[in-house]
Amino acid sequence: MSGQEKNEGVPAIRLHNISKRFGSVIANDSVSLSVRHGEILSVLGENGSGKTTLMNMIAGIYYPDSGQIFVDGKEVMIRSPKDAFRYQIGMIHQHFKLVDVFSATENIVLGLEEEGRYSLKRSAKRIREISEQYGFDLDPDKKIYEMSVSEKQTVEIIKVLYRGADILILDEPTAVLTPQETQKLFAILRRMRDDGKAIIIITHKLHEVLSLSDEVAVLCKGKYAGTVKTAETNESALTEMMVGKKVTLNIERSEPKDPQDRLEVKGITCRSREGVELLRDVSFVARSGEILGIAGIAGSGQRELLEAIAGLQHVDGEILYHNPKTGQIDNLCDKTPLQIRELGVRLSFVPEDRLGMGLVGNMDIVDNIMLRSYKKGKGIFLERSKPKNLAEQIIRDLEVVTPSASTPVRRLSGGNVQKVLVGREIAASPKVLMAAYPVRGLDINASFTIYRLFNQQKENGTAVIFVGEDLDVLLALCDRIMVISSGRIAGTVDARTATKEQIGLLMTKNTTDAYADVSQKGGAADAAQ
Amino acid sequence: MMWAGFLQRAIMQGIPLLYGSTGEIITEKSGMLNLGIPGIMYVGGIGGVIGAFLYEQNAAVLNPLLAVLIPLLCSMTGSLLMGLIYSFLTVTLRANQNVTGLALTTFGVGFGNFFGGSLAKLTGSDVPSINLTATSAFFRTSLPFSDQLGWFGQIFLSHSFLAYAAIVIALLCSFILTKTRVGLHLRAVGENPATADAAGINVGKYKYLATCIGSMIAGLGGLYYVMDYANGVWSNDGFGDRGWLAIALVIFAVWRPNFGILGSILFGGLYIVHNYIRDLDVSGQELFKMLPYVVTILFLVIISIRSKREAQPPAHLGLPYFREER
Hints:
The complex is a heterodimer.
Chain A: E1 13-22, E2 25-35, E3 39-44, H1 51-58, E4 66-71, E5 74-76, H2 81-86, E6 89-92, H3 104-109, H4 120-134, H5 149-162, E7 167-171, H6 179-194, E8 198-203, H7 206-212, E9 215-220, E10 223-229, H8 235-243, E11 261-271, E12 277-287, E13 290-295, H9 302-310, E14 316-322, E15 329-331, H10 337-342, E16 345-348, H11 354-357, H12 365-370, H13 385-397, H14 414-427, E17 432-436, H15 444-459, E18 463-467, H16 471-477, E19 480-485, E20 488-494, H17 500-528
Parallel strand pairs in A: 3-8, 3-9, 6-7, 7-8, 13-18, 13-19, 16-17, 17-18
Antiparallel strand pairs in A: 1-2, 1-4, 4-5, 9-10, 11-12, 11-14, 14-15, 19-20
Chain B: H1 2-29, H2 37-58, H3 64-92, H4 97-123, E1 129-131, H5 133-139, H6 150-157, H7 161-179, H8 181-191, H9 193-198, H10 203-229, E2 233-235, H11 242-252, H12 257-272, H13 282-289, H14 291-306
Antiparallel strand pairs in B: 1-2
Helix pairs in contact in B: 1-6, 1-7, 1-10, 1-11, 1-12, 2-3, 2-4, 2-10, 2-11, 3-4, 3-10, 7-8, 7-10, 7-12, 8-10, 11-12, 11-14
């Protein structure tokens, strides 16, 4: 294949009407796109819009249900990652696949059946050549466990280049990088493009799309929304394509009754272990009798924010809790998670993996409810009767479909697991209820049950904080929506009057500003070379 | 020269441990924690005994080559079957590795004792042991001039071919693990099977091969013990706790077969040092027999505190591998 002449007019890779479904969920619905050699294509879309699934089909991890893939104008079948390599397609996944105790070289040659004798020295030499060609900065003998995230990503990229990849797919490569590292990566990607490689980059960051790519293909909820030239578009046009048309949902929404400040977050900042800022100077107020929505692209700091309030994450700043019983104001930053829970602040964290953080899969519903009350009761014996009554009440009230209260929760379907989790947190009649993505993976009916629960809590005077991803739901359910972007508050809007486009733009606003000066510097550096 | 004799005995004591630990290192490098090694070494021993017994009973005149080859093949077949049982249960059926390994040890020891007792009955002797001195003599053939070279000959040249083979195999395994593509792939399977799988390495195949080859190497330790160390006399439970000591040696050798060579001699020496200390009563002897284990525990503490990444067990050791499916 490599010896073949590259025809200028023929796309390096072209997808035609690709569809893929998982069970009843349609991940991709007849998507078509193409990218030529010497071109960077961005695949843009919100979380869950099917970007990664689509790329995984090119990389041979999934096989499409229908549609065709053409490489250099010829139709191909890509059934495994090995096939993908044969067509010189290399994918850099979001989660790195590296062996920690191996050196960069060992990781790069792993699984490769090169001709001739096995020699790490020779391989290291070639890695140095590739590094020099594209401007990577990598020590081939360095062990992976000594590397930063950005260095690990470099290893992954060199791994596919070493195998002679001509078509590179990068799945959200900047999600884990600092702005400086991002800028460096982009410079390298531009150099690769100029070298004639076809590059596809998956992202949901508008500013990256605009500064890097030649064309943008937009996906919206699994559907292909079209491809546009980057030069002929702008942020608001892309946002409109990305969020799609407004869908009206019939969720009842009452006016907040007697709202009072309940939780006051003042200037909190949080850093990851790598030193990347996850939250920066976040301030807001959550009021009783109100649902505060938090919108934002996944990984913008929502998780850290909720964990900070629940006392699970160390942050700088102040989180003030206005205790309605005593009238006192407590700073939650000084308290342990248990003390915070005692105050009535409940985190019904319905996380990416429901069973991971909220419930124990092998235990039954009663035992899972007892996880919250095991400190109650006298002596060394557990008190089981009250949790059992509560479990039965939750099953009845929330219509949990389960053979009995003593069924292990891992045997329940996703929606029912979520109902148990939310039901348990609500049962303690919290003063602040936080939930992240509580309806992820649920069907319509189960979702509406959860929305109803939140509305009930709101009417009872609870301050509800709801992190969601579906803008239609946020607009229909919440009273105010706070938009978070790259760990900063991009703005707060009234959910009754705001539009989807407005929120969509806010979701990428702050970072665009922050990026503007970086990219200018980057551009200057590029020009100087 | 008492210390030359001590060293010679230490090496002889260490060789079964070296076989066992080399086999276990190869196995563990693929992420398989085979605690069946003591049982496999038993089966390796009794396999050789059965082969030798049948040959001695049925041949009028013993052919030296056959007298060595038949027990060798029987021993390796026995331990290979044990390795296959283990890999089938843990890789194909995804059974728990610890439970399977311990079951295999129990089975192997029982298997050895059962056939040991049965063969002894066949000979009609009163004691539950089998005497295969004729076969053992062929196994113990050493270099002809070793007894003329004083202490040097006694320590280094007086051993049988299986002892030298143990050292060669250990060095060869070290070379394969660190200097070849196969070794790189094998280590990747033990460290991060998902990554290895994504790189196109057949994880199941590597685990099967490593376990089976490792078992065969370990089984030779049992054979060496019967034919060389015990002069061809099989007695039930005679092999003792050497299998567990071999597993302890894996840790002591920080998963490097070449380190295992010196480690095995050290362990062998510690194991018999009580015989060379005068005026020790029985309880004192038992205390001294603990030494290799104490050393291993201390060593474990030290490497855990230093927490050097290269001295840690393979990251995926003992865990089953499921390919991620959506």
